[in-house]
Amino acid sequence: MNDLCADNLHLWRGDMHVLRGVSFSVRGAECLQVTGANGSGKTTLLRALCGLVPPEEGQVRWCGVDIGADPSAYHRALAYLGHDNGLKGDLTADENLRFGIGLRCRVTPTAIGAALTRAGLAGQRGLPLRQLSAGQRRRVALARLPLFDARLWILDEPGSNLDSAGQALLLELLQAHLAEGGTAVVATHQALDLPAGTHRGVMLQ
Amino acid sequence: MSARASFASAAALLMARDLRLALRRAGDSLLPLGFFLVITTLFPLALDPELSQLRDIAPAALWVGALLSSLLALDLLFRDDGQDGALEQLALCGQPFAGLLLAKTVVHWLLTGLPLVLVAPLAAIALGAPYGAMPGILAAVLLGTVCLSLIGAVGAGLTLSLRRNGSLLALLVLPLAVPVLIFGARATALAIAGESLAAPLYLLAATAVLAATLAPWALAAAVRIGLE
Q1: Alpha-carbon distance B16 to A201, whole Å?
Q2: Is B27 on the interface with A (CB under 8 A)?
Q3: Of the candidates A96, A192, A200, A104, which has an alpha carbon nearest to the alpha carbon of residue A150?
Q4: Per residue in B12-21, pLDDT tens?
Q5: Model confidence over A16-63: pLDDT tens digits?
Q6: Per residue in A69-99, pLDDT tens?
Q7: Which chain A residues are within 8 Å of B94, Cβ to Cβ?
Q8: What residues in A contact B82, CB-CB < 8 Å?
Q9: Which of A102, A113, B46, B118 stands the most exposed, by the fewest C-beta atoms within 10 Å?
Q10: Do A84 and B83 lie within an 8 Å CB cutoff?
């Protein structure tokens, strides 16, 4: 269950051969940390894993099935956090979570309130997001993740703009996700302080 | 495990979100409408204000104005969602992407097409059209703006990944909108002349149905390419 498997992925960006035969597999309750120099293709790899960019060669399989076979079913099991938060600056944190999560599953205002309080944003719930700092906006995006009810998390530099309390929140959320048997692929340079046996790394050249 | 949201509730929520966003930025949404009014009222100023001459150019003025103002409005459709990553989240939410984009296009029409339908009779009167022509003009502009929103949305999706997409969008969308311009202007001319405008209205309606059937798929494919 909850296996994500990449098999010999090749991807070009124009003339650039960005992914050159990337292969790995992650099981449930396991976090794969993707590292590599700037420009080594971390974001491209994660977007290929999401199905946003089809690889020229190779295959991504979720629970043994090619992700192209039933994209909707795969996307329902997937929570993606990219460089951009996917939040609207003109809406409040509350509204952003209600609209963002409501597209996928039913969510109660209490659950949203609890998620924002956990992220340390109880006092900023009613403010338009454009009035919050970049780190606070990232926290709103992180607070969204558990409510997505997804078995696979794909996070691209989730710790950007976060202070140490924000980093702790990220680790706490990740650990809870792994404890429930979820799978995670995280591109970050920061050391992830996760329990032994749940954490592996892959380095892009 | 919480209950999965149905497509209908997801689409309704997305439309509510877009309407709320538009309300918070009412100025942006009203800009195309103001543009339409200015263009159509410039014609009587530039021409001899003789009624028969105004009536002759009324269809052309109305439809060129509608076309240009719908082009201006297209900029609002995907720009913000593309820049802040909301479009990626839409593509990955597990709901039918074409359906969600159609819901967005419907809201876009409500915000920029429907106001045009409501003020088009006013603009037509300013151009000397008789009151008897109003129902015909209303019907033609209603069908025409639906077509323009759908065709334009595909163009906006195709130019999503380009930084300065304004002029390319115009080059892409305006030729595709030519049938709408022809049938719309013809229907308006017939309405002003007091003749039966059934034929061009049917053709406009057919174009609208065709666009509503095909545009969502083209739109989803275009936006997916734009997201790559």
Answers
A1: 42
A2: no
A3: A104
A4: 999 999 999 9
A5: 999 999 999 999 999 999 999 998 999 999 999 999 999 999 999 999
A6: 999 999 999 999 999 999 999 999 999 999 9
A7: 72-76, 78, 104
A8: none
A9: B46
A10: yes
